[in-house]
């Protein structure tokens, strides 16, 4: 792990951003305060309804069973499960044991799962026999001492004697190893401590609007933000948990009106797929009061559209490594909420390098990676994290993300921001989503290629139509896309980000 400067650690503790409370203790306190809170899984495959008390009983029996098998503080427990009750039980049980939990996105395949298990070396792995692309592969976990499969033998791991209390653990030690979504390479194992994860949970809970309603969590709980929103923040707040294991916009719209569930935002795709669905009506807007957007590029065309519908939009910026760097409050001035990614959150510092790269540090910044070489490249001796993103700061300290260093298109030696080109494409009639990547160019090295998801009934625009639109928008000609491709759906990571490396691979197979 990286060496955290002593003065930073002392400051975080003095300000109360870091406490001596472990995640197990945080959960124990929250669950005791609201034991009868509803916990519900809306699923065609494995529906479940109960209370926090019911889930805690399963979790403590699981913790007791794993303790009998020698699992305790300092060990790691991995799970690959959809948004089911058992995922919460495994997460909570790991926290009660003082073990580091390794959530794995349920639709990762054998290559990714094998890589993660080999990197994390867990003592326990809990999965499902089959769900969508998830398939239990015994060979992948042959070296894991304890394996449980939900729907087959998971109950055999449960002890008759629940673990009564959380086991003592070092608050500065690992509590979570979250593997990133792998947009460009093998997933990176990001290690968070009880202190960094606890601060992130408290910070997010404090920033959410008080009248946001009962939230539906569709983001996979194998991903960092889905896990925090499903299994930690509701316990801290004593608010109901409602999970769905498949993102189906039609089903989500039915849950909104039938169960009074709200969608609070996330990656833009979750919101746009609702608005663009034929079943969407103005009656659904009462369940879309707020849209906290982040996790992917947030186009100004989208925030303006949402504001026009009466939805209060606010943007945030962070990553698995540093989950909450900046955010606009839900009551900030509208131009700041719509067109910037907010100001730094409590305890967080940012600065811009000479090339515009954002450097950050703060009390929710991770301990480092499971790969020491990655840790050495990403962090410096003063505790700054190289985000790989570029941005601009206005006079009021509001940050606007302008792109990723790796997402630049270098055309004839000139840098082109993919985000800037995407913004113009999104203002074309009928365009639902746009992604721009670099395509090989024998003369100039690279040029911009656009991928568009069109609204129903709208054809892909031709190059001449697109060029006329860019001419009217006033964007320099060298930035105009030189090819357009249509997609029915974009390839995405667990957090909803478009996997641009797969779009670049698609172009490579066409040439």
Descriptive overview:
By secondary structure, this protein is of the alpha/beta class. It folds into three domains: 18-194, Rossmann fold (3-Layer(aba) Sandwich), CATH 3.40.50; 205-404, ANL, N-terminal domain (Rossmann fold), CATH 3.40.50; 412-510, 2-Layer Sandwich (GMP Synthetase, Chain A, domain 3), CATH 3.30.300. 31% of the residues lie in helices and 24% in strands. The chain is built from 16 helices and 27 strands. The strands form eight sheets. It has a five-stranded mixed beta sheet. The chain has a four-stranded mixed beta sheet with strand order 2-1-12-11, with helices on both faces. It has a four-stranded parallel beta sheet with strand order 4-3-5-8, with helices on both faces. It is globular and about 70 Å long. The mean pLDDT is 93.
Features of this protein?
GMP Synthetase, Chain A, domain 3; Rossmann fold; alpha/beta; 511 residues; four-stranded mixed β-sheet; 27 strands
Overall shape: it is globular
Write out the CATH superfamily name of the largest domain: ANL, N-terminal domain
Q: Hey, roughly how much beta strand do the residues contain?
A: 15-25%
Biggest beta sheet summary: 5 strands, mixed
Low-confidence stretches: none
Number of β-strand runs: 27
The total domain count is: 3
Task: Please give the order of strands in the largest beta sheet.
Answer: 13-14-15-16-17
Helix content: 25-40%
Number of helices: 16
CATH top level assignment of the largest domain: Alpha Beta
């Amino acid at each position: 792990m990286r060496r955290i400067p002593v003065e930073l650690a002392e400051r975080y503790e003095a300000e109360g951003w870091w406490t001596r409370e472990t995640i197990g203790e945080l959960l124990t306190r929250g669950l005791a305060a609201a034991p009868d809170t509803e916990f519900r899984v809306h699923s065609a495959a494995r529906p479940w309804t109960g209370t926090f008390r019911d889930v805690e009983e399963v979790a403590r029996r699981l913790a007791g069973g794993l303790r009998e098998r020698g699992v305790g503080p300092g060990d790691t427990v991995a799970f690959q499960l959809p948004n089911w009750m058992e995922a919460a039980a495994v997460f909570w049980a790991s926290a009660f044991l003082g073990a580091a939990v390794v959530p794995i996105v349920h639709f990762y395949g054998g290559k990714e799962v094998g890589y993660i298990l080999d990197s994390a070396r867990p003592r326990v792995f809990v999965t499902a026999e089959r769900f969508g692309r998830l398939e239990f592969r015994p060979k992948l976990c042959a070296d894991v001492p304890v394996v449980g499969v939900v729907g087959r033998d998971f109950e055999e791991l449960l002890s008759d004697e629940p673990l009564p209390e959380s086991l003592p653990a070092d608050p500065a030690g690992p509590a979570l190893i979250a593997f990133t979504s792998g947009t460009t390479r093998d997933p990176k194992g990001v290690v968070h401590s009880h202190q960094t994860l606890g601060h992130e949970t408290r910070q997010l809970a404090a920033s959410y609007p008080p009248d946001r309603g009962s939230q539906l969590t569709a983001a996979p709980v194998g991903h960092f933000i889905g896990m925090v929103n499903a299994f930690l923040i509701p316990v801290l707040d004593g608010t109901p948990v409602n999970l769905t294991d498949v993102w189906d916009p039609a089903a989500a719209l039915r849950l909104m009106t039938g169960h009074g569930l709200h969608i609070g935002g996330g990656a833009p795709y979750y919101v746009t797929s609702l608005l663009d669905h034929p079943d969407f009506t103005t009656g659904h807007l009462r369940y879309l009061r707020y849209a906290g957007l982040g996790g992917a590029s947030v186009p100004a065309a989208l925030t303006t559209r949402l504001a026009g519908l009466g939805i209060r939009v606010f943007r945030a910026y962070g990553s698995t490594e540093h989950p909450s760097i900046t955010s606009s409050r839900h009551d900030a001035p509208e131009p700041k909420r719509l067109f910037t990614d907010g100001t730094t959150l409590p305890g967080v510092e940012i600065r811009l390098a000479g090339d515009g790269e954002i450097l950050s540090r703060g009390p929710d910044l991770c301990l480092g990676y499971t790969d020491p070489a990655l840790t050495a490249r990403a962090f410096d001796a003063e505790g700054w994290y190289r985000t790989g993103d570029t941005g601009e700061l206005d006079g009021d300290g509001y940050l606007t993300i302008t792109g990723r260093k790796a997402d630049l298109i270098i055309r004839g030696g000139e840098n082109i921001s993919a985000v800037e080109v995407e913004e113009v494409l999104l203002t074309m009639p009928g365009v639902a989503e746009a992604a721009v990547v670099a395509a090989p160019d024998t003369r100039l090295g690279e040029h911009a290629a656009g991928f568009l998801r069109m609204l129903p009934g709208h054809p892909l625009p031709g190059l001449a139509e697109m060029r006329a639109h860019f001419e009217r928008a006033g964007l320099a000609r060298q930035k105009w896309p030189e090819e357009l491709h249509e997609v029915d759906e974009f390839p995405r990571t667990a957090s909803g980000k478009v996997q641009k490396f797969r779009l670049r691979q698609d172009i490579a197979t066409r040439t």
